[in-house]
From TrEMBL:
InterPro entries: FAD/NAD-bd_sf, Flavin-dep_Halogenase_NPB, Flavin_halogenase. Gene3D superfamilies: 3.30.9.100, FAD/NAD(P)-binding domain (3.50.50.60). It comes from Azospirillum lipoferum. PANTHER family: FAD-BINDING PROTEIN, SLR1998 PROTEIN. GO terms for molecular function: monooxygenase activity. This is NAD(P)/FAD-dependent oxidoreductase.
Amino acid sequence: MIHAGVIEADAVVVGAGPAGAAFALNLAPLHRVLVLDRRDSPALRNGVSRIGESLAPAARRLLADMGLWESFLAEGHSPCHGGRSVWGGPLLVEADNLRDLDGPGWHLDRSRFDGWLRRVAASRGAALLVPAQPLSVDRAGEGWLLEVETAGRRIPIRARLLVDAGGRGSPLAKRFGARRTVSDRLVCGWSHGFDAPGRQSGLTWIEAEPDGWWYSAPLPAGRRVVAFHTDADLDAAADARDAASLLRRLSGCTVLADSLRACGFEPDGQGGFCAAHSSSLSPASGDGWLAVGDAALGFDPLSSQGIFNALYTGLAAAEAADRHLSGDPAALPGYAAGLTPIHDAYRAHLHAWYGLERRWQDRPFWRRRLVE
Ligand SMILES: Cc1cc2nc3c(=O)[nH]c(=O)nc-3n(C[C@H](O)[C@H](O)[C@H](O)COP(=O)(O)OP(=O)(O)OC[C@H]3O[C@@H](n4cnc5c(N)ncnc54)[C@H](O)[C@@H]3O)c2cc1C
């Protein structure tokens, strides 16, 4: 892979989250794949652990297709048996996963999940370079020449194909002139904590309120996340930014607050705040590059589809990359065209879900989502 001081790869992937790792583990048995990530520790943002996401039951089929199902089960993530919601009316509604042919969903330990995917990619032959990030990216003949910074050094890397798996910032695609369309201003603030021993339910909770909505889910090792979603330009966003204000606001949210008391939830002072808007990249592929996961399509957390989409696009892009590297000129545009129906179906479902809540049509958060 090293030629005259230059590292040579068929595909260089920027971003070793679920999308980048899924791409790498599927392509590495066939081609030389190098994955780089600016963070050496998976799923941490500025030293703070990520929110703690749920994985949809249908991910089972994808993981099985990639030969990962048994290995995923051995990682010991917590099963998600269903959800409780207060949405569209004051009553609590429960939906379980018992009739789902794919079985339960999963409450993920994100650091463990991302670390596992990176290890699988490496075991299938991908090279992993962390912490590392591209300083420059230039066209060189039919491929690319990157200068990458790692461990205080600058190293040149030549690649035939570049993959943007860098999350919502689309760090590579933006350099190539691709545009990100952002559909809303959703943000999320969260607080982590612990449930009392033996009182943790395997359920996700969602509750609507006048300026947004709440989410809570158990996390592995007796932990729990409580999150508030609203729009960045609303006064309520100040409560999402600050963990103490968030918990004060929560006490006015009766059903969820009662449920957390029943679990004996105690915050542990950890939390975070981030953008959570829907967005899409156009185009999602170009001459010698493509984008996967959030870099291509960013989903509202209400959909619980982001990680599923990261795994799916990682797999689909690896199949397209294999054809592209074997000389098929239609492979990359075909991959990008396949994202359009996914985006359309996502928008239609999201609109339908937000449309179910009509109690606060006079409030900006809900009014914006009804008129789309
Ligand atoms: C508040 C919130 C709640 C969510 N809840 C859920 C949920 O319950 N279920 C669900 O399925 N999804 C959920 N999601 C979505 C989910 O987190 C994302 O869809 C998923 O992480 C996307 O994976 P990815 O690999 O595309 O990107 P990421 O996980 O963001 O990984 C991108 C990687 O690229 C690296 N990177 C970025 N820029 C560079 C650079 N310049 N150089 C090198 N490396 C770089 C980063 O360090 C990172 O490791 C939620 C999202 C948010 C914001």
